[in-house]
Backbone:
């Protein structure tokens, strides 16, 4: 396990390193950055959905909290971007922890409903508090700068996002191959059995939900600074669904599947642009077909096909 | 003092009295069996003692300490382990990981150390993997050391549950129909396994339909019928008890 | 004071009746298959949009309305046959995603076919408002409430007095047992989706003269219908109706007295409170987990 897991990680690092030189122009670099950002978000969500087996249909709400913290606090209150980012994470963590206890008494559909409700409320708040957030039109975000250094060029962002991605993959794999991660996966497999061996099931669900939400908030902040603008769409229901879809299509409980799902679905709108008007139909059809014919997702199905085990 | 003391234990679901005023005690080190016809309340009794249900009335004491109403994870902390009649194996994991989860309470469960691949945590985990493999060999699953749980046959999964329970290093082990659905050869192997577990110093409580196994293994037997205690005693007492014979054979006593 | 309250109440009950029909649709499908059909809202949208399309195509109103209810029923059946039946027994997450996929396809096709515009439908019997205790009531509201009441009564009769209805109830309690006594559970599933499609569409057809419609109204309406079903106690028909009315009224009162900007947030705040403090809903049954 130890040797085999550094091989793909090394390959990923090498790929990230050479990619900027292979891309023909800045349009593709921008696409690659957005893919990497989504990959990190999806990885965090997969910890919750794929590994722990708990669905969240409101994750874009947490993304939005981070994004707007990074937009509003520096613009209206003069906070340094890093402080705003951390404040967003802290706020998200507190909110997630507050609602998590009651939410995770619920199962399946009810859990989906509760997270969805939370996400929609966050989105509505952002849309309505126009004096702070610019309302439906959104607002500009100041550039990210820390200790006098400003991230302005696309390739700055590429290195930052690549490093974050590698770190996330490494940490996610560590986490899932640890007592903490095994307890999470066990409660997915059987809550009854997990309780029976002493796992505090509710506590673990809350912990991974809060972690995943704070992670989303962080990435929301980073996206906001990268794009330089934020609109309420970042927090809407459809975006939550998109994120869940990336998890599911790539492969639940699959680290590299998360990356694959994020890459494919980030590229999809570009590919579908030629099908003016049909994007939604194709997107929905892909969701259904994937679930019906590849219920385990792409990465695990491919891994099984080529006789490779593991994650 | 008895390891486990159950007195006047009752539970009601709506109007159904599934277990009524059942009392018994189990000494450390013995193999104790609970038998009875289908629907007699055996699994419900297990669920009560292992904290899945909270009793409506009565008390359960472990080492003299009241433990009724504690949740399963709290009972696990006090050394109570169990297997399940309807398999509760985590099919999303490797077989050996299922066993490793059994050691949950003994491990450093820190999230941050885990994410950063803390050396001490890795060493402990590697040692645990060896221990889990040893347990799998002990229960006769040597050939499944690298298998996924969802690729194993039913009989092997039943033993995997036992290995997981043993990874808790329990004092008191509840086995809910360990031989159900097994063929005669597998049943014999489980029979021998239970004996070895008891020899290792674990107190075993067994719910089982296979009378040969029960009579062969158990030092004391509790007979339930319609949620009530019908009889309790050693093998010979139970074998000769007219109420038991009547309940099992439908004869008129 | 009272007049204003009544005004909010009327509009709340009217919209609530639509939520109630959607919630009944959720309940039917949930009982037959334990699937939450996230495409339920699209049936509401389809009902309204098709009614608009058929009337503009020159069909007489009754025919247009009938077609606008029947076609979504057919769509419901298609969803069941093509997307739900092939994945029997799949985990909750997969089923949720499949129905979300179906809803996107339905919405996308509608958008391609009928465009992104907002449409209205003439009221069934004029627009002259009726005055009642100082408040006004649109004749269309009476249509919405009357038809909803009829439908609820008809459903009640169907489930309590016909063999097929009882078979459907039996399937929801214990599918295997129902099969053993000869209920064709596949047909029950089929029928549930058809009825859900029709119920949702009916709600859409009735309310469109008041609220307008476009290809993208389905999500919100469907989600609120889902809220109503959960508020009432998932799986309970009467609860679904009560839940629908409650959600509608609270939304209207909240919009009127508190903030109209936060109108759409009210059902979701309600559902969160409900799930936290009363997770079994108003009329739902408690379940005991079996081990």
Residues:
């Amino acid at each position: 396990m130890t040797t085999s897991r550094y091989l793909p990680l090394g390959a990923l690092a090498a790929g990230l390193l050479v990619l900027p030189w292979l891309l023909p122009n800045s349009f593709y670099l921008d696409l690659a950055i957005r893919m990497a950002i989504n990959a990190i978000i999806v990885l965090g969500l997969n910890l919750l959905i794929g590994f722990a087996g708990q669905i969240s249909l409101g994750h874009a709400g947490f993304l939005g909290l981070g994004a707007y913290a990074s937009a509003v606090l520096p613009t209206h209150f003069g906070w340094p971007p890093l402080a705003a980012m951390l404040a967003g994470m802290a706020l998200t963590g507190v909110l997630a922890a507050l609602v998590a206890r009651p939410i995770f008494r619920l199962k399946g559909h009810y859990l989906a409903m509760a997270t969805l409700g939370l996400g929609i409320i966050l989105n509505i708040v952002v849309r309505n508090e126009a004096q702070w957030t610019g309302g439906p039109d959104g607002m500009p975000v100041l550039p990210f700068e820390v200790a006098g250094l400003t991230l302005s060029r696309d390739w700055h962002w590429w290195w930052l996002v690549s490093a974050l991605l590698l770190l996330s993959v490494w940490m996610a794999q560590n986490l899932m191959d640890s007592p903490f991660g095994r307890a999470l996966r066990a409660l997915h497999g059987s809550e009854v059995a997990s309780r029976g061996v002493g796992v505090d099931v509710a506590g673990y669900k809350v912990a991974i939900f809060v972690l995943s939400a704070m992670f989303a908030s962080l990435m929301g902040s980073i996206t906001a600074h990268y794009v330089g603008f934020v609109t309420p769409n970042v927090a809407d229901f459809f975006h939550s669904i998109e994120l869940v879809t990336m998890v599911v299509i790539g492969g639940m409980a699959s680290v590299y599947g998360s990356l694959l799902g994020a890459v494919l679905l980030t590229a999809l709108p570009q590919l579908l642009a030629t099908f003016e008007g049909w994007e939604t139909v194709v997107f929905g059809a892909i969701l259904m077909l994937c679930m019906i014919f590849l219920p385990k997702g792409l990465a695990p199905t491919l891994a099984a096909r080529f006789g490779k085990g593991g994650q | 003092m008895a390891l486990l003391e159950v007195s006047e234990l009752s539970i009601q679901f709506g109007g159904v009295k599934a277990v009524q005023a059942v009392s018994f005690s189990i000494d450390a080190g013995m193999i104790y069996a609970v038998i009875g016809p289908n629907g007699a309340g055996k699994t419900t009794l297990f669920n009560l003692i292992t904290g899945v249900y909270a009793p409506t009335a009565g008390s359960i004491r472990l080492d003299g300490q009241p433990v009724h109403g504690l949740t399963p994870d709290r009972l696990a902390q006090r050394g109570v382990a169990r297997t399940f009649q309807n398999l509760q194996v985590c099919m999303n994991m490797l077989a050996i990981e299922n066993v490793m989860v059994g050691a949950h309470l003994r491990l450093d469960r820190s999230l941050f150390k885990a994410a950063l691949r803390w050396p001490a945590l890795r060493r402990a985990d590697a040692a645990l993997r060896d221990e889990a493999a040893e347990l799998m060999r002990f229960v006769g699953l040597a050939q499944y050391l690298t298998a996924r749980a969802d690729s194993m046959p039913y009989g092997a999964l039943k033993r995997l549950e036992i290995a997981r329970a043993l990874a808790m290093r329990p004092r008191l082990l509840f086995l809910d129909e360990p031989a159900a659905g097994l063929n005669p050869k597998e049943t014999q192997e489980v029979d021998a396994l239970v004996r070895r577990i008891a020899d290792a110093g674990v107190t075993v409580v067994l719910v089982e339909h296979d009378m040969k196994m029960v009579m062969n293994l158990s030092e004391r037997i509790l007979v339930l019928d319609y949620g009530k205690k019908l009889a309790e005693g050693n093998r010979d007492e139970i074998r000769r008890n007219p109420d038991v014979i009547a309940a099992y054979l439908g004869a008129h006593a | 004071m009272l007049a204003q309250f009544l005004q909010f109440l009327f509009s709340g009950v009217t919209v609530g009746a639509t939520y109630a029909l959607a919630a009944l649709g959720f309940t039917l499908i949930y009982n037959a298959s334990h699937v939450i059909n996230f495409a339920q809202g699209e049936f509401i949208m389809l009902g309204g949009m098709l009614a608009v399309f058929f009337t503009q195509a020159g069909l007489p109103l009754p025919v247009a309305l009938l077609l606008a209810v029947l076609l979504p029923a057919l769509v419901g059946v298609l969803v069941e046959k093509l997307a739900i039946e092939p994945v029997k027994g799949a985990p909750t997450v997969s089923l949720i995603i499949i129905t979300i996929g179906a809803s996107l396809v339905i919405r996308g096709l509608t958008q391609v076919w009928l465009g992104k515009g907002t449409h209205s439908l003439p009221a069934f019997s004029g627009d002259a408002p009726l005055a009642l205790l100082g408040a006004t009531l649109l004749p269309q509201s009476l249509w919405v409430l009357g038809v909803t009441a009829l439908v609820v009564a008809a459903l009640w009769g169907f489930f309590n007095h016909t063999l097929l209805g009882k078979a459907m109830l039996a399937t929801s309690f214990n599918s295997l047992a129902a099969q053993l006594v000869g209920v064709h559970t596949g047909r029950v599933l089929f029928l549930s989706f058809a009825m859900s499609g029709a119920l949702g569409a009916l709600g859409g057809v009735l309310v469109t003269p008041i609220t307008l419609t476009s290809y993208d109204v389905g999500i919100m309406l469907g989600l609120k219908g889902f809220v109503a079903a959960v508020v009432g106690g998932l799986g309970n028909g009467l609860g679904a109706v009560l839940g629908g009315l409650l959600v509608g009224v609270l939304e209207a009162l909240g919009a009127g007295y508190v903030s109209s900007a936060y109108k759409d947030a009210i059902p979701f705040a309600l559902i969160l409170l409900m799930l936290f403090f009363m997770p079994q809903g108003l009329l739902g049954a408690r379940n005991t987990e079996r081990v």
Remarks:
- Chain C touches chain B at residues 288-289, 291 (CB under 8 Å).
- The longest helix of chain C spans residues 2-33.
- Chain C is about 75% helix and 0% strand.
